[in-house]
Amino acid sequence: MTVCCHQxxxxxxxxxxxxxxxxxxxQILHDKEEWQLRLMLLMPDHLHALVSVSxxxxxxxxxxxxxxxTANFASVDWQxxxxxxxxRSEKTAAAKYxxxxxxxxxxxxxxxxxxxxxxxxLYA
Length: 124
Known about the structure:
By secondary structure, the protein is α+β, with helices and mostly antiparallel strands. Helices cover about 40% and strands about 15% of the residues. It is built from 4 helices and 4 strands; from the N terminus they run βαββαααβ. α1 packs antiparallel against α2 (about 60-75). The model has no long low-confidence stretch (mean pLDDT about 90).
């Protein structure tokens, strides 16, 4: 999924204290088993996350809880909606994982994916 900040083109997420609050909120949802988070990567004005939810859980409601929490704890001004892509196989998930990890490289922010500090990986 991709969640964008209300004001695009401005760094709103890539600050150590803000990233910590965002990742803490994501970890709480993971620990409560509201979603299974594999990867969350912050870009200056949006984030990418590779998550799954069980069949009886609404992804929209879970993302809404995450956005409300991070709006309060990290003062993030999110856009109203988010973009999601259904991944139907492990091969597709692996490709999306690589795509997300390389996003800062494609944006010219770092030379290699491991150089980007604003990511949370919970399981591979």
